[in-house]
Amino acid sequence: MIDLKSLREDPDVARASQRARGESPGLVDRVLDADARRRALLTEFERLRAEQKEVSRSVGKASPEERSAILGRAKELSDHVKAAEADADRARDDLDRLVAGFPNIVLDGVPAGGEDDYVVLRTEGSPRDFAAEGFTPRDHLEIGELLGAIDTERGAKVSGARFYYLTGIGARLELALLNAAIDKALAAGFTPMITPTLVKPEIMAGTGFLGAHADEIYRLEADDLYLVGTSEVALAGYHSREILDLSAGPKRYAGWSACYRREAGSYGKDTRGIIRVHQFHKVEMFSYAPIEEAEAEHARLLAWEEEMLAAAGLPYRVIDTAAGDLGTSAARKFDCEAWLPTQGRYLELTSTSNCTTYQARRLGIRERTLSGTRPVATLNGTLATTRWLVAILENHQLPDGSVRVPEGLRGYLGGLEVLEPAAPVTA
RNA sequence: GGAGACGUCGCAUAGUCUGGUCUAGUGCGCAUCCCUGCUAAGGAUGUGACGGGGCAACCCGUCCGUGGGUUCAAAUCCCACCGUCUCCGCCA
């Protein structure tokens, strides 16, 4: 939720933000109108209510002779108050609806435009030259099957398309990666958390996931709960309706959870292997920070992501996502994309967003300061996901189909240096 | 799943039966000050959130788990829901 006061004081910033996102700047004026109307009706209601309270109080003290006259007056006022309150409530609902649909204000420097208008900030590491090494790289699924690490056929049999089993060394490799991520988070001062993956509608709405991309989310209708697409949701909800003390710096949590995505509208895209799946695991960083520290914290989250990518030995690039490709809640987003040799393209492995105070306003997360309370900034970023296995298997493969274990993960696999092809799991 | 108890401004509690004097009292904690001169005790004052108006001291409104209802008037009466605890049943 955007800040109405600053919108009132400086609507041009919001208009510019809307234009950068490729959305309507006219929405700003509709919000301003609704806000003015709501405040006028609220003032009127409160004036009548104050009068009614005064008259009502006088009923008890009135002498029997005065009583019926006062009661008549009170009754009349009561009707007026009810009507005025209904008007004010309606105006508030109108305003709320408009505000709910208003995305976060993008930060200065965010590239304008859509999905393809990102800016590459830098490229780290260099992709291997498989031609020079004299072999054609296998894709992650082929390797995964050779290693007995990934089984998508049985995943489809049991749960449908875009489901999979990680088997044997595949399961161990994912656990190794996620454990490495948790250790990285611990070293950076995060509190590890294992979070709920089913959340209430108000929490899902508060994080901004029920806006434009609501069809991405699984909903359990019988229980009115949502399956989270990331532990960001549960971690943002953790301190909802609380007042925090951030005087010692940001509060940092690292969530480990399964993540669920419907992948509606991605038919035919990344259908092979485990690049785009309905269920995966992720270790996610989440920070609650004073707003002045948000941009510095965002830079820190990005740096920790890059340390993980280095531990996994992956070549990657960092992009500054364009305004139109930001989520509803994000004011700025950096993605790290690893090189995918068999597709000759970069694949998103991490994403870190600065949501400024947008989520905190919706979820009622504030901090205590010398001059009262105010909303905090929330930020999130990926430390590892199941998808990383794709890049690890492809980038570290050897001609015979085995895979060199990146040094940063060996300690989590009992010192194992190479994953060797194994007999497949057969019936 | 069944039965019962409970939910009050940081914490603990009063108030609910008998609606108006609750403009929610008290204790603890906390903050400032006073006294004292020494890691004590005492005293005074203050002590929330949200919204609106001046936008500074102030004023108004909302908030007693949540949402409805009754009433001129609801912490208080009625209904529904949520949560916590206890007991029973069932499942692991």
Automatic annotation (TrEMBL):
Residues annotated for ATP binding in this entry: 261-263, 277, 348-351
A Pfam family of this chain: tRNA-synt_2b
Coiled-coil regions listed in the entry: 74-101
Residues annotated for L-serine binding in this entry: 230-232, 284, 382
Class of the enzyme per the UniProt entry, highest EC level: ligase
GO molecular function: serine-tRNA ligase activity
Database matches in CDD domains: SerRS_core
Written domain comment of the UniProt record: Consists of two distinct domains, a catalytic core and a N-terminal extension that is involved in tRNA binding.
Name of the molecule in the record: Serine--tRNA ligase
